[in-house]
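Why should sequence recovery work at all? Because a backbone constrains its sequence more than one might expect. Tight turns favour small or flexible residues, buried strands favour hydrophobic ones, and helices have their own preferences. The token representation captures these environments compactly. In the example below, the structure is given first.
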């Protein structure tokens, strides 16, 4: 039994045709067919039913397919690890983080990484909303810190560990609040401008998340600009709690309390990496430090 035969088996099981497997492996269809027959002979069972146009797994074939997936994943991890060992430490490691995350929490970890691996560049990519998660899924970043939920994480083939819980708080400046002395509903803010940070990913494309129908709005591409506009009284919106603590204390900003709106949105931040993705020594160290229990 060879890994190449198992790869042929996996591809045909997933695509149902010899043609697609031959295209992916750059082999002829007869070569794929011969490889599968040899595998079946070695195992002493029929892996596929050949009664229909598309090849379908037999019951035994389905059980072998599940084991094959695990074996090929392990083989891939060994190959990745050997490549890392041959190259030594990485020249650069990219960490994407969602902009509402309090980056100062990572400074001790980044300092440790800088000290331990002075020749490796750490690239920090600030993303908004779904952008950080997409950077991980598309392998534009090896590691990500972003909001998530257990359901999302389990369904997206990522390994994740919760770091802490923050919040986005709906705020406005006193001069805007004074224009609505009896404000109870978000409807009363329809003619005020809601300041909205644009998604750097595709997750909210075509969707107006947290924006009521007919709401006047301005779009910005960072929280700093959003905070400046809200402080000036030109609009209202949600800001990360750590970014506005002092402003809430000194009265420069007011927390809105609306009966029909989510005034405070809890944000659970996770460190994430792709499952079955073998990390090099620098990324492994960074991941280990990211996922240490918070003291």
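From this structural description, the recovered sequence reads:
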């Amino acid at each position: 039994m060879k890994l190449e035969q198992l790869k042929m088996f996996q591809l045909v099981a997933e695509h149902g045709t010899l043609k697609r497997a031959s295209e992916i492996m750059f082999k002829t269809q007869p070569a794929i067919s011969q490889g599968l027959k040899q595998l079946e002979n070695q195992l002493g069972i029929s892996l596929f039913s050949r009664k229909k146009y598309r090849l379908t797994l037999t019951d035994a074939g389905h059980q072998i397919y599940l084991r094959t997936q695990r074996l090929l994943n392990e083989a891939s991890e060994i190959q990745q690890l050997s490549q890392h060992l041959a190259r030594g430490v990485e020249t650069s490691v990219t960490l994407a983080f969602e902009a509402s995350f309090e980056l100062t929490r990572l400074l001790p970890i980044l300092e440790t990484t800088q000290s331990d691996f002075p020749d490796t560049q750490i690239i920090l990519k600030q993303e908004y909303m779904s952008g950080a998660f997409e950077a991980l899924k598309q392998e534009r970043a090896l590691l990500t810190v972003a909001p998530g939920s257990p359901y999302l994480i389990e369904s997206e083939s990522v390994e994740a560990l919760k770091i802490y819980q923050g919040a986005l708080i709906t705020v406005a400046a006193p001069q805007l609040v004074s224009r609505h002395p009896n404000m109870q509903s978000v409807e009363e803010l329809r003619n005020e401008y809601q300041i909205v940070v644009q998604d750097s990913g595709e997750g909210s494309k075509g969707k107006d998340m947290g924006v009521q129908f007919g709401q006047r709005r301005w779009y910005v591409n960072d929280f700093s600009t959003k905070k400046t506009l809200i402080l000036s009284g030109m609009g209202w919106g949600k800001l990360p709690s750590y970014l506005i603590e002092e402003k809430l204390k000194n009265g420069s900003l007011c927390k809105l309390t609306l009966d029909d709106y989510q005034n405070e949105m809890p944000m659970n931040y996770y460190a994430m990496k792709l499952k079955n993705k073998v990390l090099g020594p620098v990324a492994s160290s960074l991941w280990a430090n990211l996922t240490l229990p918070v003291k």
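A few observations help interpret the result. The CA atoms of residues 172 and 178 lie 10 Å apart.
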